[in-house]
Amino acid sequence: MKLVSLNVRKGMFEKIFQFSTNINLVFSEANSVGKTTLLRMLIFSLGYSIPSTKGLDLNKYEFVLKIITDSNKELDLFRFHDYYSISYNKIEEVFSLPIDLYDAQSKIFEISNKVILSNLLGTFYIDQEKGWTLLNRGKAIGNNHFNIESFIQGLSNRDCSELYVRQGEIKRQIQKYKHMFNIAQYQKELNDLNENIAYDAETENIQKELDLLAFERKPLENEENRLKKVLKKNSTFIKYIEDMKLFVQAPDKSNVPVNQQTLVGFVDSNEYIISKRKLINEQIVNIDRKINTLKSRLESEQTLVQMETLIQNFDSNISKINIDVRAVENVLIGLEKERKKIATQIADSTKSNNLIIVELHEMISTYCKEFGVDEIYVTSKQDYIFTSDLKSLSGAIFHKIVFAFKLAYIKSVEKYTGISLPIILDSPSGREIEKINVDDMMRVLERDFYNHQIIIASIHKYDFSLFNTIEIKDKLLGF
Amino acid sequence: MPRGSNASASAFGWEFQSNAAIILMLDNIKEAEAVRVEGSTEDIEVYLSNGKVIYSQAKSAINSDDNSNAIAKLKASLRTLNGASRLSNVHKLVHITNLVDPFNDITSVPYFVGKTQLSFSDLPIVCKTIIHELIEQNQYSNIEEQNLEIHVLPFHGDGENRYKFIKTAVYEFLDLVGLPNNGLGPKILLIWQNLFFANASQQDLNIRITKKDLVWPVVVTICENDQDADFLNEYDDGEIDEIKSKYSLVINSSSECFEFTTKVIYDYSNFTCPMQKEKINSFINTNWNNYIDDFIIDGVDSITREAVIKLIIHKILMKRQRIATIRRTINI
Q: Is B107 left (phi over 0), alpha (psi -120 to 50) or beta?
């Protein structure tokens, strides 16, 4: 895929940036003139959600990005805020972002695999801020994630969606039980400090009865609301039919108007629901009567405990909650086991007999060697690519390893999907990296990725044989 | 509604009146259109579809075998019924009581064993004479004796025993309209008792309990507690209960949404089956998959979805069948 030009408009003002299909250098001598912003505009124009840079809200501009897809289609991608359209041969297709993001991007990148699409940005775009520390899991920019397991699953067409859903459910349950556990710990603290508050037994009993009645009432109330909605839906439906003012012919050739009286089954259906709702309402009224009686009793029975502070009020409510700590701990242990089991299943599903892992590891090792990264940093074990040990990496070494990973990702995408992704790099010359190493990186880029479009933003000029310069002198747009 | 040994005579009387009204309505369910408790003219007024009215006085005692005031109660009834007799729409005049000896005459007691309903002409001579004398002595000249009936409704004791005969009347009603009992008789009775008791306290005398007000809660109660159909035998009990509980929202909403129910009813009406008794089950088993597209539920396996769809169709058709039977039987 090649980005041809970017047109940026606001009101009467517009500016066009042209790109070469080979190497492009977005250059400025000074920092903070808008190089990063231009790259982010490109990503924004591809439909991604991007945080705006200082002083420039992307949602206030119109963008038209002309691209040529891998199958040589010329597409015009238009974006204004969440309104997105793709035009091809003067036929426009409209999308609403972010809901339709995958549908739109499937046309841009010409693949339909959602798992790959959801990880694509993390392969070809390296942002100035977080991009150079995104190795195999994290955010490419904003809320756009990259995950190597998911990426490999997508490339190898291994579907773990059901496992991920289950994993999500378990995580939520663990959170809830942890909250319960924390409450129990807090209760223990209160007890230890003798700050739990004893209530009059009768008051407590009345309160328990009230809690029970409230518990009984809730599902009835929900059911009553549900019935109201069904009645409304049916009413809307019948109005729609009646508004059509239809007639049907009876066997005796007379005309019978179609309305709620003549529509077979409608009156009965409605009567049924109304009756059901009445019965539910009577039960609710009954419960409310009991609640009111109990509340009056409570007022007269209650011993006056002055709740002077919110904390005292909070503590007294916490003391009343009945939590079986042992049971909660056991449930948590069970859930953790299940979470680990699912994580293992996902990992096994991804890793077992997967040639892509072997290929990625080989490419990463080769590139790292070429960038002068010592072998102790990149082990020979193939599952190194799933490493979470980032603490031991820092500075220039980390920078180079990240770059090696990216190049391997891009090559894999090309091999397994046929897409030649544009490579967009913001400030490849990190603070600690030496020029010679950056030159090595650029040399590899030019050598092995000559069929990819490359766009680099930097205050340095690199030793490319052929490149297009987009120089930003003062301000990126001027409007 | 006060029940039990501490009911005062007045509260007992109110309760008897409401239950008597239920009985009178059920006894006349085919011809009746509405009933009013504490009507403008009498204690109980049953309005018939031909425009006529059954006017009734309800007289009771906590001790049903205390007949010391039996004649006084009869006299009070006749006085009020005499007033109603001036109206042109009288169908019957009824004196309904829980006294086992409503005429304070031991020789007539055998005529009033259990729940009894006797027209004037069926009464023993001693009872006819008592009535005749009361009418003459008090100049209740508007009463036409052939319109008069004496009803005895056993209503005494504490707890559930008090409602024995009324429950029987409820079961007979359910049987008449082809509805299964399923142990729901007491629940239905309670619904009616609350309805009639509330009607008695409504000051607007135009507010009546119609036949529909009476019958629809019964239809709802029965249909919402219907027994499972044969097609569910292929599932475990526990499985079905879980499905019903988990998907109750979908099942209830779908079986009440007219846009969907009309589709099912239409298809069912065009479905032929040699055995009428088996028609519903046969339709469900052969046609449930025509409605798969109406139920795309994420994360549900095919077996569960099949069960949910079948439950919904069953509910729709059973409801329709029950309503049709009731309409036919009691002229709603």
A: alpha
